[in-house]
Amino acid sequence: MKFAVIVFPGSNCDLDMYHAIKDELGEEAEYVWHDTHDLSGYDGILLPGGFSYGDYLRAGAIARFSGVMDEVRKAAEAGKPVLWRPDRQGAELGRIAHSAGGDGLRRRVLR
């Protein structure tokens, strides 16, 4: 599988997501800047959380107007996995990505 790690100004954990996919799972991963308008070459999409320069420029605020989010919605509607961080900013990106339908799932107990 090939994963897109979407990068926004001020996002964090994009490095961790890349490492988890590439080095731990042995799958392909690429950083994709938020102004990209084509995600058709990817089998899965990863959305980091994060914010920078105060809350008014958080990744979610930037994502709301980024061209890539339409592509993320299309990927989700096509049944491709779209994963995001379970923190406030990651959840906001997830809501934006899934505004066309669907919702995040509550994490089950991990051991």
Oligomer state of the chains in this structure: single chain
Strand fraction equals: 15-25%
Distance between the termini: 26 Å
The top-level CATH class is Alpha Beta
- SSE order: EHEEHHEH
Please estimate the helix content: 25-40%
Number of domains: 1
Outline the low-pLDDT stretches.
none
Rg, alpha carbons: 13 Å
Q: Output the CATH homologous superfamily.
A: Class I glutamine amidotransferase (GATase) domain
Number of helices: 4
**CATH fold title:** Rossmann fold
| Overall residue-averaged pLDDT value | 76
List keywords for this structure.
Rossmann fold; 32% helix; alpha/beta; 4-stranded parallel sheet; single chain; 111 residues
Quick structural gist:
The chain has 111 residues and is of the alpha/beta class. The chain is built from four helices and four strands, in the order E-H-E-E-H-H-E-H. It has a four-stranded parallel β-sheet with strand order 2-1-3-4, sandwiched between helices.
Describe the structure.
There is one protein chain. This protein has about 110 residues and is α/β, with parallel strands linked by helices. It has one domain: Rossmann fold (3-Layer(aba) Sandwich), CATH 3.40.50. The chain is about 30% helix and about 15% strand. It has helices spanning about 15-25, 60-65, 70-75, 90-95; strands at about 1-5, 30-35, 45, 80-85. Strands 2-1-3-4 form a four-stranded parallel beta sheet, sandwiched between helices. The longest helix has 11 residues, at about 15-25. The two termini are about 25 Å apart.
